[in-house]
Amino acid sequence: MPKTPVDHHLFVLDTNVLMHDPTAIFRFMEHDLFLPMVVLEELDAGKKGLSEVARNARQASRFLDELMTGATKADIKRGLPLPAPENGAATEEARHGRLFFQTRHLPNLLPESLPGHIPDNNILGATLALQEEHPTSTITLVSKDINLRIKAAVLGIHAEDYCNDKVLDDVNLLYRGHIELPASFWNEHSKKLESWQDEGRSFYRITGADLADWHVSQCLSMEGDASFEAIVRELKGDSAVIELLEDYRNPKHSVWGINARNREQNFALNMLLDQDLDFVSLLGIAGTGKTLLTLAAGLAQVLDQNIYHEIIMTRATVPVGEDIGFLPGTEEEKMAPWMGALKDNLEVLTQTEGGEWGRAATDDLLRNRIRIHSLNFMRGRTFLNKYIIIDEAQNLTAKQMKTLITRAGPGTKVICLGNIGQIDTPYLTETTSGLTYTVDRFKSWNHSGHITLIQGERSRLAEFASENL
Q1: Do 175 and 156 have their domain in common?
Q2: How far is CA 53 from CA 49, 161, 390, in A?
Q3: pLDDT tens, position by position, 31-61
Q4: Fewest 10 Å CB contacts: which of 46, 84, 88, 464?
Q5: Residues 82, 125: one domain?
Q6: Same domain as 227, residue 121
């Protein structure tokens, strides 16, 4: 590797960064990247199979192959030029980053306690050698492996986590889908207030500079006024059109025998039953009613209103404990152990007065209108006029979420459910989860809705456990 300018920044990439995000080599702006030879060997070893990690390893190898197309040995030694940032931040005069490979043996500067034949230690040794050869440059090791970063710090190597895939710096900044208006709101906006009714629905047009942070389909409530619950239908400049919502806490307005028990559940039912919203996401801790409300709204629209042909339910099959091993049977039979939440909630929704015969007839009816599918067989499919429920979506990556949501054809509604506080997928965090990514990206689309459920309604035991354990 040639001499580098003073104060130049060089990043050494660990294998797990490329296996996590194959596009990582394009994410470092004008800075240079260095790939130790052991990284290429680990990519080659990890490319076999059909898992997400294997696909990422193959994609990373393809990106590297494209960069090397037509390059000579001298070009590789000088560093392969990386594409300019797509956001236009770099000008023609600005420096573009280069990709360097380990093309020669580097001296082993590791202490005797760290033998060099372990892949992680090889990466540490290469980074130490680069620091020795380029004292005027800032050398940073980028890895998703916490223990490797700890070992690097012990050796005096600057190490960082790969954070480019973070949707937000702090999960508390995630869009909640709800605004509580001050009690003085109507007095402040009464001068330019319009109201009208259309097909039994009440609308208001409000004008004011404080509406700039609102989003379409955002839910509104007011301090001290439990009866006021509305949703934003239109935003134009400093004016907004809001619609009063249906009160599904009223026993006369039940949905498949279910009533909302709190404000957020009422918001959720209104959005789940809104045919103009093609995508709805519900976040909340265990026991807030995400699955029950979604199934109730789905059954009402599939069996009563005939808006959708059937309900399709899927989820990520990530175990909380150890894997129980091979599961026999068809696709639905293999998915059955993962669908305990579906069965539990259907028991609540299908309580009939016809005894065993009535329950059996209801079960047969539902079995024909509710399908269970595995994520593994979703790619390439198109679902028409379906009500798709993606449960435990916090365990999916942004790429997996894109794959699932893009399966939706005309007339299909997609609902994502999850609790970002219960992530079981390795390397995924609250700020990198596909559910967090989706909520943030869809918040400004007019045909999507989101609400964060707060209050647990499962039982007093479950609520206490959620708050105190």
Answers
A1: no
A2: 9, 18, 21
A3: 899 999 999 999 999 888 877 788 889 999 9
A4: 88
A5: yes
A6: no
